[in-house]
Amino acid sequence: MATRVGMEVSIAAAEAVKQANADVIAAYPITPQTHIVEHLSELVNNGELDAEFVPVESEHSAMSVCVGSSAAGARAFTCTSSQGLALMSEIVYAAASLRLPILMILANRSLNSPLSIWNDHSDVMSIRDCGWIQVFAENGQEVYDHVFIGFRVAEDRNVLNPFMINIDGFILTHVIEPVELLEQEVVDRYLPPYQPLYRLHPDSPVSIGCFGPPVLFTEAKKAQNEAFCKTMPYIIKAWQEFGDLTGRYYHPIETYRTEEAQTILITQGSLGETASIAIDMMREKGEPVGLVKIRLWRPFPFEEFRKAVRGAELVVVMDRAVSYGGPGGPLAGEIRSALYPQEDHPRVVNFIIGLGGRDVSPEDFVQMAQRAKATPGQWYEIYGVRE
Amino acid sequence: MAKPENEITWKDLNVGFVVDEPGNASVYRTGDWRSQRPLYNRERCIRCGTCYIYCPDMAIKILEDGYIEHDLYYCKGCGICVQECPTGAITMVEEEEKDGD
To answer: What is the ipTM metric for this complex?
Structure first.
């Protein structure tokens, strides 16, 4: 029987990496990711997890170790945040182009400057186009579950692509939540050992990471994009099979009380739980409001998203990053692109909220919904700023 | 590779652009990069082999009689052999020019 325990989300994530039987963990500590890798180093040191723990000198090296070990056929894991991701980003792109099934947890934190250790989504948005499968987790259970789902999807022969789990720094990483832990036997049934398609081995030598001359580079990018776009059904299948084993079903887009909703709020990550409280408050007063949560960020689930907001007159997008001089936040830009092909598309209003650890309350969501409804046009603003 | 590079489609490529045919760098014609070509004057050559040692692309062959020959399939036209030759037996000419022009 699965056991339900109170556990810090970071510890639960590390326990999941142990249960997933990772071969190589390479990480450099950075707040708020630290507890995850600290606990993993303890598990390896205590002999509870038979893995190589490589305490690298930088995040750039962390991802490089993951790339090298994954290319040699290992199940590789790393974890970072903010500035660490920025330093790592060169190799993050390489990992995707090389199609190596690495799993990374990104404990979302704002990018310098001003220096901030607190949570927003400016780190992940900086590597939006890196070619990783990217999901947002809303609570501790989702983080724990997606370690298994992530490896399963990434290593699928039809996918072979790195996988990133976004979890809000502090809001999730440092919070004790009830988490239902899986029996090892269930994990083993769900996640078979990794069987690489190619690997660096003297018996059958291959070259990984070659240069692409102009005559082939475009073909390489086309091949990568085609393969990436085709990952969607395998991600959905992995979620379905995980649900069949555990009773917890996940979807690219999650909806909450969207039936007959004229106004729909859009969130990513842990904001979804707060927003759902606001939806209940507004529904109680008879307001036709619903919530759509974007779980799968890349590949973007265009069809599922359009279906989820069908019939709405107003869509209020909550971004946690600024796109300076752009069309609003990065999420709103995607939402507008997704809706544009529809002839009768809803109005899109965009609030940039929760930057650098600023709390967002259910009352804030109510206020934003009211403001968006009362003010015509398509616009965006950074919400809650002292004038 | 089975096909010439300019006939390879995106569907022909291996996952992750992996090259699973070892040693095929030798078919890559680096001679295409050249804008200047070495011109060899056998009369001035003292068969010291210095150019052969310095050539970064192993594009100089030493013949049985000790004289040399440039392999223009690989020679990138860097001109190092010209710099290193103690007797000035090698000069660079524009790629378009004919020998001896």
So the answer is: 0.92
